[in-house]
Structures are given as structure tokens and as C-alpha cells.
Specification:
Distance between the termini: 148 Å
Number of domains: 3
């Protein structure tokens, strides 16, 4: 029996590598194979030939011999075949590192890819079609086919080319045998065109060659485009800002400027300064003459009357001083001076209007203020006649007014004057206003309801008698006499809103002040510049309207 594990049992009779076998001398010079482990290819069994049992795994040397024998059987040339020189056993150099090994294997894989690409181009152009057809019809020698080894690739049926694949590498085209034509001479193996080596970049790295130049040009284009866009944006923004910051002309004429007091002069600060000076000027007594004189000197310039018009006799005390809203320009000082009107009320009830000339040095900050001249006393502003109100459309409900006066309003005003929240809750609606639920905090007490006028809403005026549905609101005018902490009695007028509910009438809102329904001319006052105490703002309410006369139907008539 033949020992398949020994070199002697292999095809070739143990001949050294690269020597011709018993099938005849080699017709080709031995080809240089690629480094790396190469795979043997299995021979396709001939029809009718007995099937040989599968041999066991052979050592490396025996496998290499089997590869050579398979090569010879698949490439007959006139009864002979060339035995190519087998690639050397893959041995790793002594000083080779793992990185160098990976580089070597990468180069082998690259060469395999180039090999496959060249074969594909050959098949595409029909260069190997004739040889493939001849090899398909050529008789194959009888013999046992070499078993395929793990990690190797067998050639396709009828293919004259055997691709020997080792660990990550494929035999180059130079290791392929020549493909003969039917009855023709042996052909030399067609070597694929040399492929130019190239570097494969790392993931995320730059591509070599023209790709890198393309990336550089693309980046330069993007950079230039971004810069141009930024410059254009800056230019447009500059134009917008420059246009918006330009001087604009206000569409106001001289009348608007005078009406709204649009000026650089600090009028409010100058008015406060004039009020303080007027208070000192209208307060005098012989006991405080020296102190008053020193205080006035801090306000006035050197040539102004140091006594502010006081003769040195009599006494007076200013209670309040307020700017009356007038500010006439000083022609001598232009925008830096104004005549400021101030109304001063003294302790005897006299109301006096003083005109104080004020100069301001710094218009932006209001610094450098001085009273630039003597004051003058002027009459009070003219008063107008009040027109009589047209109350023909008002309808009054005396019955409702009497009910409110006796049952609702006395208890409510007592709680409201003392700000008693618990007591007010019994008289107010859940949605009552803040003024109706806050009160006077005890500043007034002991209220007495003087008069109540209930105004019938238009939606109820057609009913007889007046029927108010639930939720109906009614306006009322109420006059109340209060007692103040000093024991004096004052009269105040209110406008109230009451709401009808299933439990009765409740207060929803209260506001102060009631108009004079009669109107009339203003009282005549002297033109001396001072007003009597009665000419000041009145603190008493106007007399209540006369009660409505009952109509023949029993309804209250219109006032």
C-alpha cells in the first residue's frame, strides 16, 4: 500500500520540488509563486472512473505534491504536463512583528483582488474563451483526485486556470499553466497586466492621489464661500445699522411742542424748586425773620429781595404749594429759564398764585437752579360755568331707595367705615370689587344715610310695578354724613351698584363722587388775586336732587 503521509507516496515519486514527474518533462520554466500558504485544487472526476475513497488530511509537503499533480492532470499538453515549482512553505521571519505581518497579509489580499480583476477583464474581452473551450473537451488523465484542503479553493469545472489560495493570499497569474488549444502547440501563460500599487487609507483618513487633491480643493472652496458669505452679512448689517442710526425728523410742529411741553428744560425739577421757594416766601413771622432770610438766600440770586416781599409785620403760614402747570419761557435766558406758576394755600384758607422766575444752568442734569427774580402774585385761573345735566331719561324707584336706606346701607357703611371684613361679607356679593370690600380703616365713623336715589334700568322700566329679576344690577346715588375723629361731621357722596338676589339686595361696587345735576354759573369772586375760603375746592357734597313727583299711575315720575 502507498503511504499518503510520506513524500514517496505522493505524485511525483518523491521527486524534489520543481522537478518533472513521471508524466514527462516540463514544458515551461517554473513560475515564481506568491508567498503564503497556497491551497490545492480538486480534480473533477472523469465519468465512469471509480470513486476513490477520501484520504485523510495530509501534511503540508504531501499537500503541496498533490497540488502539483492536480495541476498536471488538469493542464495536459500533448500527453505531458509541466509541474510548476511549488511556493515555499510559509514561514514567518525571525524579526517580523505582528504589524509587519498584517501589512504583508494586506498586500497579499490586495494582489488577490488585482488578480481577480484581471481575470474578469480577460473573460469580458473574450481573450480566454477559446482556451477554456479546448480545455473543457480535453481528456483528463485517470487518477485519484486530490482532496480539497481546508482553506483552499478548487477550480471550476472545465476551467484551465487554477487559483491557489493560501492564508489571505492567492497565487499570481504567473503560477497558472498555459491553456492549450485542441491539437495545437502549447501556449505560454498569459500574464495579467501589471497593476499599480496603491495605499488603502485608514478609516476616516485622507484618500491618496487625486482624492486628496480633490478634498483640498473642496475645502478651499467651502472656506472661500463661507468667508464671502460672512463678509456679505456684515456689510448688510452695517448698512441696516447705519441707516437706522441716522438722524430722523419728528413729525411735530410748534403747536404740538408747546401743547405737550416737549423741551429740554427740566420743567418738573424747576417746578419743585419753585414750590419750595413759594412755601418759604408765604411763611413769615417776626420771631423767625433771620432764619427765614437765610433760607431764602439759598434759593435766590444776589439781587433778589431777601425778604421775598415781606414788610416785617404780621404772620402767615403756608400749608401747601403746588405747581399750576404753567411754564412761560424767559426771553433773556432762552431755554435755560422759565416763569413757573405756583398755587399756595395758607393756614387761614387763602389760596394765592405766585409766579416764580427760575434759571437752570445744566439742562441735562438740572443742576445749577436759582430764583432769578422777585415773585409776583397773580389771580386764580378763570373758572367756567357748569352746564346743567339732562336727566330726562332717568327713572327713579323710590320704593327701592327707601328699602336700601333703611335695611342695607346703614349696616354696610358702618362695616365699611371700620373695614370690618366679617361684617361686610353679609352685605357684599361674592364678586364684589376691592373698593367695596376694603373700607376706610376707621378714618370716618358713625355714618348716617342722608339720601338715596335708585335708578331703574331700562330693561325694567316697562314693568308695573318694577320687577327686578335675580342678578339684576341697579345704580344708586347715596349721600352719607360721617363723623371724623375730631368729632366734626362731614358729608360725602357715593355711586353704588347693588344686585338683586334670592336673599335680597347686596353691594357689588362703590365709587366716590356724584355730579351736580343742576349745574349753573360759577360764583363771582373778587379780582384781588386772593380767594375767600369759600372759593376753594368744596369738600361738601352737592345738595341731593329733589324727589320725583309721583305719577297718576302710582309710579315715580321722571326727574
Amino acid at each position: 500500500m502507498t503511504d499518503h503521509n510520506s513524500p514517496a507516496g505522493a505524485v511525483g515519486g518523491g521527486q524534489p520540488s520543481g522537478q518533472p514527474g513521471p508524466f514527462g518533462p516540463s514544458q515551461q520554466p517554473p513560475q515564481q509563486a506568491w508567498q503564503g500558504q497556497q491551497a490545492p485544487a480538486a480534480q473533477q472526476p472523469q465519468p465512469g472512473a471509480p470513486q476513490a475513497p477520501q484520504p485523510q488530511q495530509l501534511p503540508s509537503d504531501a499537500a503541496r505534491a498533490q497540488v502539483a499533480a492536480a495541476w498536471v492532470r488538469n493542464t495536459p499538453r500533448a500527453g505531458q504536463a509541466a509541474v510548476p515549482s511549488l511556493p515555499p512553505r510559509e514561514t514567518r521571519p525571525q524579526g517580523e512583528s505582528k504589524k509587519e505581518k498584517r501589512e504583508r497579509e494586506r498586500a497579499a489580499r490586495k494582489a488577490a483582488y488585482e488578480q481577480k480583476k484581471a481575470e474578469k477583464e480577460q473573460r469580458k474581452h473574450g481573450g480566454a474563451s477559446t482556451a477554456s473551450a479546448a480545455a473543457a473537451h480535453a481528456p483528463a488523465p485517470a487518477g485519484r483526485s486530490a482532496p480539497p484542503q481546508q482553506g483552499h479553493v478548487s477550480p471550476a469545472a472545465g476551467s484551465p486556470t487554477l487559483a491557489l489560495r493560501a492564508t489571505g493570499a492567492v497565487a499570481p497569474a504567473a503560477a497558472q499553466a498555459a491553456t492549450p488549444t485542441a491539437g495545437g502547440p502549447a501556449l505560454s501563460p498569459s500574464a495579467p497586466k501589471a497593476v499599480r500599487d496603491f495605499d488603502v487609507p485608514k478609516p476616516g483618513g485622507r484618500v491618496s492621489g487625486g482624492g486628496r487633491r480633490t478634498h483640498v480643493a473642496l475645502r478651499a472652496t467651502l472656506l472661500i464661500t463661507t468667508c464671502l458669505f460672512a463678509l456679505g452679512s456684515c456689510g448688510v448689517m452695517g448698512l441696516v445699522v447705519g441707516k437706522s442710526s441716522g438722524p430722523s425728523t419728528a413729525g411735530l410742529d410748534a403747536a404740538d411742542v408747546d401743547k405737550y411741553r416737549l423741551t429740554d428744560f427740566p420743567t418738573q425739577q424747576a417746578a419743585t424748586f419753585a414750590e419750595q421757594y413759594a412755601m418759604l416766601c408765604m411763611t413769615f413771622s417776626p420771631e423767625t425773620a433771620s432764619t427765614r432770610r437765610a433760607s431764602l438766600a439759598r434759593y435766590a440770586s444776589a439781587g433778589v429781595d431777601a425778604e421775598c416781599g415781606w414788610s416785617g409785620e404780621g404772620t402767615s403760614t403756608a400749608v401747601s404749594a403746588a405747581w399750576d402747570g404753567t411754564a412761560e419761557q424767559l426771553p433773556e435766558y432762552g431755554d435755560h429759564g422759565r416763569y413757573i406758576g405756583v398755587q399756595v394755600r395758607t393756614d387761614d384758607g387763602t389760596l394765592t398764585t405766585l409766579t416764580v422766575p427760575v434759571y437752570v444752568q445744566n439742562l441735562k442734569t438740572g443742576d445749577g437752579m436759582r430764583v432769578a427774580g422777585d415773585v409776583g402774585q397773580m389771580p386764580l385761573p378763570a373758572r367756567a360755568d357748569v352746564p346743567e345735566l339732562d336727566l330726562n331719561d332717568e327713572v327713579k324707584d323710590d320704593a327701592l331707595a327707601q328699602q336700601l336706606k333703611q335695611q342695607v346701607l346703614p349696616g354696610y357703611f358702618s362695616a365699611w367705615g371700620a373695614s370690618d371684613a366679617t361684617a361686610m361679607a353679609r352685605f357684599t356679593t361674592p364678586d364684589a370689587s376691592q373698593s367695596a370690600t376694603s373700607g376706610l380703616s376707621g378714618r370716618l365713623n358713625t355714618p348716617t344715610i342722608n339720601d338715596v336715589v335708585a335708578l331703574v334700568p331700562k330693561s325694567v322700566q316697562n314693568t308695573d310695578p318694577y320687577r327686578y329679576p335675580a342678578g339684576q344690577a341697579v345704580e344708586a346715588r347715596v349721600i352719607v354724613d360721617w363723623g371724623d375723629p375730631k368729632g366734626e361731621t362731614v358729608r360725602r357722596a357715593y355711586r353704588m351698584t347693588v344686585v338683586n338676589t334670592a336673599q335680597g339686595w347686596f353691594i357689588k361696587d362703590i365709587r366716590g363722587g356724584v355730579l351736580d345735576s343742576q349745574g349753573g354759573r360759577a360764583d363771582s369772586a373778587d379780582d384781588s388775586g386772593t380767594a375767600s375760603p369759600s372759593s376753594g375746592p368744596s369738600t361738601s357734597a352737592s345738595p341731593p336732587a329733589s324727589p320725583a313727583k309721583p305719577s297718576p299711575s302710582g309710579k315715580p315720575g321722571k326727574s
